[in-house]
């Protein structure tokens, strides 16, 4: 017991870290998805490493009318795919690394800026949030956004402490890279602008130009693409913001999704409770700003409040139903605000009670996330390996029959194992089915129909 009190902070940190990793990584091989997005950037990586075919384009914003972002995420994945020899289990390693990085950087940075207790409260909320427990295990572009937010805070902290040109360039690198992970990172631009206007570092307008030009330099892949393709992406970008998606706008449709996103705090999916939470965050922000004397933190929370004010207007202008992950960028700001408020302005017993309530209401929503994914990477890999075990090394084609997107992920795995798949209509056809048909070879929920003439 004496050892615990002597090393209390280290013990609490390790316990929370273990719980954080357990929630995210337990049974991760069987949980992780390998769908359309994962197949897309995995194929890009394969083309780079196998064929020397580099890409200039990353994810596309929203839909077929949207514009493209730069491919920095694809290149970030390359070391992981090299390690696994192009097997998509690389995504498991990637997710693991991102989560460990997020936890470690959060702890170190937030302890430095806001203190140990606030940092631990932030990580406690993040660890037990059912919203983040789900999204933290999806290997795709948005998983980078919380990390990008931390790097933005770190860059602004460096500028506040030491206003050098180097630190402004670092800020430009952070903003310029992470905007290409998902366009919702534009909220970090708003936060940064308000924070800089509040703190007004010396020569901020001159140094800000260095940040701006650094962001522009990171557009080089898209500029090269445009020169090669008659300015296609620039045209898409301009048309998107001038003409929108071409669909009628609904100013209030985002509220349904927002209600789902804040469910970890409301427990019940109810729009009224969601709006009460929205108002509560405003009250907490205004109270904290009024009470705070430290210039950095006062500016930080003022910029956070600006984001929260902007939220309904931005999504109303968007005018379409967003996905729940469109709110990912906002949660780090809200969590740090709530954590700081709990630590500084609430009675300890009351704060502990609220945290316990948050944990106990989220655990039932986290537990189902541990189940194996019947359509996940592991199952798809088993289907393809089963085909390799049963079929001769002779050309064949493969068809997929089932719910929408049944085929996603499989084609990459067929290329990975270099199976003799042909598009020739005269070769025998293997069928992969959901549901399973009579006489199929069964692998999980998938049935495989194999013509007798190509069986080993």
From TrEMBL:
<dbReference type="GO" id="GO:0009103">
    <property type="term" value="P:lipopolysaccharide biosynthetic process"/>
</dbReference>
<keyword id="KW-1003">Cell membrane</keyword>
<dbReference type="InterPro" id="IPR050297">
    <property type="entry name" value="LipidA_mod_glycosyltrf_83"/>
</dbReference>
<feature type="transmembrane region" description="Helical">
    <location>
        <begin position="301"/>
        <end position="319"/>
    </location>
</feature>
<dbReference type="GO" id="GO:0005886">
    <property type="term" value="C:plasma membrane"/>
</dbReference>
<feature type="transmembrane region" description="Helical">
    <location>
        <begin position="325"/>
        <end position="342"/>
    </location>
</feature>
<feature type="transmembrane region" description="Helical">
    <location>
        <begin position="89"/>
        <end position="107"/>
    </location>
</feature>
<feature type="transmembrane region" description="Helical">
    <location>
        <begin position="349"/>
        <end position="370"/>
    </location>
</feature>
<protein>
    <recommendedName>
        <fullName>Glycosyltransferase RgtA/B/C/D-like domain-containing protein</fullName>
    </recommendedName>
</protein>
<feature type="transmembrane region" description="Helical">
    <location>
        <begin position="272"/>
        <end position="289"/>
    </location>
</feature>
<keyword id="KW-0808">Transferase</keyword>
<feature type="transmembrane region" description="Helical">
    <location>
        <begin position="204"/>
        <end position="225"/>
    </location>
</feature>
<dbReference type="GO" id="GO:0016763">
    <property type="term" value="F:pentosyltransferase activity"/>
</dbReference>
<keyword id="KW-0328">Glycosyltransferase</keyword>
<feature type="transmembrane region" description="Helical">
    <location>
        <begin position="138"/>
        <end position="156"/>
    </location>
</feature>
<keyword id="KW-0812">Transmembrane</keyword>
<feature type="transmembrane region" description="Helical">
    <location>
        <begin position="168"/>
        <end position="197"/>
    </location>
</feature>
<keyword id="KW-1133">Transmembrane helix</keyword>
<feature type="transmembrane region" description="Helical">
    <location>
        <begin position="113"/>
        <end position="131"/>
    </location>
</feature>
<keyword id="KW-0472">Membrane</keyword>
């Amino acid at each position: 017991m004496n050892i615990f009190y002597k090393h209390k902070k280290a013990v609490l940190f390790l316990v929370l870290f273990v719980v954080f990793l357990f929630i995210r990584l337990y049974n991760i091989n069987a949980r992780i998805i390998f769908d359309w997005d994962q197949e897309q950037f995995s194929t890009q990586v394969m083309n780079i490493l196998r064929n020397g075919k580099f890409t200039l384009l990353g994810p596309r914003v929203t839909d077929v009318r949207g514009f493209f972002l730069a491919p920095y995420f694809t290149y970030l994945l390359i070391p992981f795919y090299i390690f696994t020899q192009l097997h998509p289990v690389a995504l498991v390693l990637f997710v693991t690394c991102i989560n460990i990085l997020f936890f470690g950087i959060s702890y170190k940075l937030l302890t430095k800026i806001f203190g140990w207790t606030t940092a631990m409260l932030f990580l406690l909320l993040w660890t037990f949030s059912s919203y983040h427990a789900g999204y933290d295990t999806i290997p795709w572009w948005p998983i980078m956004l919380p990390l990008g937010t931390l790097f933005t805070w770190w860059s602004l902290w460096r500028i506040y402490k030491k206003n050098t040109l180097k630190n402004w360039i670092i800020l430009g690198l952070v903003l310029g890279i992470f905007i290409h992970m998902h366009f919702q990172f534009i909220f970090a631009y708003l936060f940064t602008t308000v924070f800089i206007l509040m703190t007004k570092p010396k020569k901020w307008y001159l140094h800000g130009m260095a940040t701006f030009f650094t962001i522009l330099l990171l557009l080089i892949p898209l500029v090269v693409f445009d020169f090669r393709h008659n300015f296609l992406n620039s045209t898409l970008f301009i048309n998107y913001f001038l003409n929108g998606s071409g669909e009628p706008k609904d100013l209030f449709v985002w509220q349904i999704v927002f209600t789902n996103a804040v469910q970890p705090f409301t427990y019940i999916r109810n729009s009224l409770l969601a709006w009460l939470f929205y108002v509560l965050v405003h009250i907490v922000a205004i109270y904290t700003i009024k009470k705070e004397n430290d210039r950095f933190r006062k500016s930080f929370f003022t910029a956070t409040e600006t984001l929260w004010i902007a939220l309904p207007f931005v999504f109303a202008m968007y005018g379409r139903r967003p996905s729940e992950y469109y709110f990912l960028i906002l949660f780090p700001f809200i969590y740090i605000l709530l954590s700081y408020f709990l630590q500084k302005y609430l009675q300890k017993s009351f704060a502990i009670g609220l945290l316990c309530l948050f944990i106990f209401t989220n655990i039932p929503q986290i537990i189902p996330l541990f189940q194996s994914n019947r359509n996940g990477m592991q199952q798809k890999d088993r289907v393809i390996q089963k085909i390799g075990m049963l079929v001769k090394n002779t050309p064949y084609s493969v068809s997929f029959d089932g719910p929408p997107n049944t085929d996603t992920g499989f084609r990459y795995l067929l290329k990975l194992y270099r199976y003799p798949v042909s598009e020739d209509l005269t070769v025998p056809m293997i069928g992969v089915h959901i549901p399973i048909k009579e006489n199929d070879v069964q692998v999980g929920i998938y049935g495989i129909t194999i013509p007798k003439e190509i069986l080993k």
